[in-house]
């Protein structure tokens, strides 16, 4: 116990717990209003290495995956007056970058551009319109975005797919199209209903036993009807067994330039409450919920990269089937996505697309338009995405980090192009605070800390990032309040930072 801080250990622990409940930011993470003069007893030692263990993070790493009808729900109906709150929030995740937006999901196979002389297939539920094309094209231009555009594949109609692709290409332009993605999760075509006979009997889009071999034949046929000059994207699968066939798929389709797979750690549909995949906050904060999605894709990433093909997890979120109330819309989702994105970066994935639609429980934001004015509600998930963008700017590389904090404390470190080292610490424990003592490579002095805090892990409101927050009904899409950064100087070569219960902290050190 340091003589300069004559506080008994039980009192220090009680002060740390009070910090976790109140969300108060401390200068250096000890149970006091001033920086500690010694490293607190029981502090978690963290040692940061200097040799990167990842590639440079590509620009546009954080993207969105948007169901087709929600393009207008988010951006608005007037291409000349797009929703400025939406545009600002998307830009906030990709400052100075070209974001990657995917339009697809289930609605990729439920959407078409009406084909003259063709009767609408029974599985079609949404028709693209000139307004949709104008709004989406204007959004792409305003954001300088690259779009992954889902093309109806379940209908198995060459003319339908070719017409849709040509219309999209003419309206949006090849400059803003990253590729055409045929269908969505084709492994489920034989088991899930594409439409319902008499509104009751499900009718699948493919016959029983439909698998990879049949898919490859269909893909070759339908893709040949698409306009050349635009890359193809796929297989847009969520099945682990299809990962084993990725090499076969990629070598059989020379126009594929981007491999895509989907991941959700938890499942709301048809899942037993006893399953670890059932949506609860406890299950979402288990280490496997954030490390598992990336680990399952590691070999597939190597396969794609060996062939010179990029790889995106272009549909990712916390809970499948639209999310789960009280889980996907809470602060737990912010902590989960922080750790998950770093795991994705660590295995070499080139980007992720957070899946969303206007009424989804896992949507990072929702918008209203009243009397000609837009406003938005920013959910906790967005704060987690925003903190990742600050912790891992484009060009940054992951540095090795050695710590013994167990599964409840996650540590990630990056070195940016600017030479700065950023250490992100996540405390998943719901009632216990933690203290970290971080040793950086030589060449750094004073550093600053910003925190991601909320009233509780189950909170849906009251989240702050660096002392700032979005207004409950923001009309600007910008954080409000003064930034709250804490300066931290090293103590015997270590930076001491507290982690209140269920919180994250970002230490940024500038080289001398």
Give a short overview.
With 512 residues, the protein is α/β, with parallel strands linked by helices. Helices cover 26% and strands 27% of the residues. The protein is built from twelve helices and 27 strands.
Properties at a glance:
alpha/beta; 512 residues; single chain; 7-stranded antiparallel beta sheet
What does this structure look like?
The structure is a single chain. With 512 residues, the protein is of the alpha/beta class. 26% of the residues lie in helices and 27% in strands. The protein contains twelve helices and 27 strands. The protein has helices spanning 9-22, 70-75, 84-93, 130-143, 158-172, 212-223, 240-243, 246-252, 281-284, 287-306, 331-346, 380-391, and strands at residues 44-48, 62-67, 100-104, 111-112, 126-127, 146-151, 177-182, 193-197, 201-204, 232-237, 256-263, 266-267, 310-316, 319-320, 351-356, 365-370, 373-378, 397-399, 401-403, 409-415, 421-427, 434-439, 444-453, 464-465, 486-488, 495-499, 503-511. The chain has an eight-stranded parallel beta barrel, surrounded by five helices. Strands 18, 20, 21, 23, 24, 25 and 27 form a seven-stranded antiparallel beta sheet that branches. A four-stranded mixed beta sheet has the order 19-1-22-26, with no helix packed on it. Helix 10 (287-306) packs parallel to helix 11 (331-346) and helix 11 packs parallel to helix 12. The radius of gyration is 24 Å and the shape is globular.
């Amino acid at each position: 116990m340091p003589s300069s801080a004559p506080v008994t250990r039980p009192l220090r622990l009680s002060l740390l717990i009070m910090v976790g409940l109140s969300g108060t930011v401390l200068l250096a993470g000890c149970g006091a209003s001033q920086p500690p003069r010694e490293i607190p007893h029981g502090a978690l030692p963290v040692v940061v290495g200097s040799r990167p263990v990842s590639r440079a993070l590509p620009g546009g790493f954080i993207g969105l995956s948007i169901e087709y009808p929600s393009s207008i729900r988010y951006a608005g109906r007037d291409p000349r007056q797009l929703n400025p709150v939406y545009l600002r929030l998307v830009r906030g995740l990709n400052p100075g970058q070209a974001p990657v937006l995917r339009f697809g999901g289930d609605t990729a196979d439920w959407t078409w551009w009406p084909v003259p002389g063709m009767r609408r297939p029974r599985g079609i539920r949404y028709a693209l319109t000139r307004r949709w094309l104008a709004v989406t094209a204007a959004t792409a231009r305003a954001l300088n975005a690259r779009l992954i555009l889902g093309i109806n594949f379940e209908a198995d109609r060459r003319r339908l797919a070719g017409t849709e692709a040509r219309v999209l290409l003419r309206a949006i332009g090849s400059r803003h199209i990253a590729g055409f993605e045929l269908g969505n999760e084709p492994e489920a075509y034989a088991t899930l209903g594409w439409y319902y006979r008499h509104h009751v009997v499900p009718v699948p889009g493919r016959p029983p036993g439909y698998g990879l071999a049949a898919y490859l034949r269909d893909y070759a046929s339908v893709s040949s009807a698409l306009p050349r000059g635009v890359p193809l994207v796929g297989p847009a699968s969520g099945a682990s067994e299809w990962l084993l066939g990725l090499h076969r798929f990629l070598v059989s389709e020379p126009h594929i330039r981007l491999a895509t797979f989907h991941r959700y750690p938890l499942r709301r549909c048809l899942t037993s409450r006893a399953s670890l995949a059932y949506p609860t906050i406890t299950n979402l904060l288990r280490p496997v919920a954030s490390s598992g999605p990336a680990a399952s894709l590691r070999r597939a990433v190597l396969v794609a990269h060996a062939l010179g093909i990029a790889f995106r997890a272009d549909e990712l979120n916390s809970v499948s089937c639209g999310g789960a109330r009280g889980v996907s819309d809470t602060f737990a989702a912010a902590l989960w996505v922080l750790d998950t994105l770093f795991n994705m970066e660590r295995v070499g994935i080139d980007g992720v697309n957070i899946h969303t639609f206007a009424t989804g429980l896992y949507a990072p934001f929702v918008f209203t338009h009243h009397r000609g004015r837009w406003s938005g509600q920013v959910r906790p998930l967005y704060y987690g995405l925003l903190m990742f963008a600050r912790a891992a700017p484009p060009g940054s590389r992951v540095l090795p980090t050695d710590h013994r904090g167990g599964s409840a404390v996650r540590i990630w470190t990056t070195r940016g192009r600017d030479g700065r080292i950023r250490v992100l610490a996540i405390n998943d424990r719901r009632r216990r605070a933690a203290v970290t003592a971080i040793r950086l490579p030589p060449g750094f002095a004073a550093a600053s800390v910003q925190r991601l805090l909320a009233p509780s892990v189950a909170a849906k409101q009251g989240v702050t990032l660096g002392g700032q927050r979005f207004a409950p009904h923001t009309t600007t899409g910008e954080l409000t309040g003064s930034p709250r950064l804490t300066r931290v100087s090293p103590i015997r070569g270590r930076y001491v930072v507290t982690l209140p219960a269920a919180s994250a902290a970002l230490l940024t050190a500038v080289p001398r």
